[in-house]
C-alpha cells in the first residue's frame, strides 16, 4: 500500500544479492514518486535499475528498508527480457491476459499496441525481439494497471515502432493517469515524454525530482576560468583559458559567462559523467 497521492515510495531501500558478487546492488534509496508521473529511471550499466524495478514489482525482497507499491493486481511489470510463454500464439497470449484480469482487461488498449503489426496466429517463440516487446506491452497496457514498471521497454524496437509505441504509451498514461517508471539508456527517447527523473549510480540515487524543476535548477555556462562558488559544479571542463561547466545554481549567476538552459540530455550526461568518479 502506498500513501495517498504517491505511486511508489522507497525508504532506505537496500538490496544485496547472494552469490559471489555479494555487493550492494542498491543502498539507502529514498524517494516518493507522485501518482500520475512518467518517471525516467536512468543510470549506467549495473547501476541498479532492474533491481529497483523488480523490487517495486514485488519479485525481489529488500535486504534493508522498504518499498511501497500498489498491490500486484494494480501494477504491470515488463522485464528487460520480456518473458512470455513461448508455445502460445499471440492471440492466446492476449486471451490469457484477458482471463487473468477479469473485470479490468482493456481490450482496446491491448489491440492498439498490436495494431496490424503482428499475426495473431504467430507462435511467441518465433517472434523477433521487437515483436515480443509489442506483445509484452499489449499485455501490460491491457491490464489497466495504476503503475507500469517498464525495464528498457523500447530497446529492441526499430525507430518507427519505438516512436509509435512511445507515443501510444504516453497518450494512454495521460488519458488514464497511470504512473509509469521506465528505465532507458536512450536519453533522447526520454526528452519530452518523462516529467520525473530518478538517476541511479552505484546503487544510490544521484538525482531525483520533477524534470522541469531539475532543469530550472541547472545552468550551462562557458567563459573564462574562474571560481564558480557558491554554485555547485556538477561537471566542468577547461580548454586553455576557457571553462565550460554545468552548475546547480545557488542564487543568480553573476560573472563574465555565457549561460544557457540545459536540455534533459545535457543534464543527464553531465550527472552520469560526474557519477563515474563518485564513491558508490
Ligand atoms: N541475480 C543477481 N545476482 C547477483 N548479482 C546481481 C543479480 N542481478 C543483478 N546483480 C548485480 O546488481 C547490480 C545491479 O544490477 P542491475 O541489473 O539492477 O543494474 P541495471 O542498472 O539494470 O543495469 P543494465 O543497465 O546493465 O541493465 C550489478 O552489479 C549486478 O551485477
Report on this structure:
It is a single chain. This protein has 280 residues and is an alpha/beta fold. It has two domains: 6-209, 3-Layer(aba) Sandwich (Rossmann fold); 213-276, no CATH class. It is 29% helix and 30% strand. It has eight helices and 13 strands. It has helices at 49-56, 90-100, 107-114, 129-142, 159-176, 187-190, 211-217, 264-275; strands at 6-16, 24-34, 38-42, 64-68, 75-78, 147-151, 179-183, 196-201, 204-210, 218-224, 232-239, 242-248, 258-260. Strands 5-6-7-3-8-9 form a six-stranded mixed sheet, sandwiched between helices. A hairpin with a 2-residue loop joins strand 11 and strand 12. Helix 3 (107-114) packs antiparallel against helix 4 (129-142). The longest helix has 18 residues, at 159-176. The radius of gyration is 21 Å and the shape is elongated. The protein starts with 5 loop residues before the first strand and ends in a 5-residue tail after the last helix. The mean pLDDT is 92. It binds adenosine-5'-triphosphate (ATP). Adenosine-5'-triphosphate (ATP) binds at residues 17, 19, 21, 25, 43, 45-51.
> Helical element count?
8
CATH architecture classification name of the largest domain: 3-Layer(aba) Sandwich
Give the count of structural domains: 2
Report the portion of residues in β strands: 25-35%
Shape: elongated
Provide the CATH superfamily of the largest domain. Answer: P-loop containing nucleotide triphosphate hydrolases
Query: What separation lies between the terminal Cα atoms?
Result: 30 Å
Which molecules are bound in this entry? adenosine-5'-triphosphate
Biggest sheet, spatial arrangement of strands: 5-6-7-3-8-9
Here the CATH topology of the largest domain equals Rossmann fold
* DSSP summary, beta strand count: 13
GO molecular function, one term: ATP hydrolysis activity
Pfam family, one: ABC_tran
InterPro entries: AAA+_ATPase, ABC_transporter-like_ATP-bd, ABC_transporter-like_CS, ABC_Transporter_VariousFunc, P-loop_NTPase
Keywords: ATP-binding, Nucleotide-binding, Transport
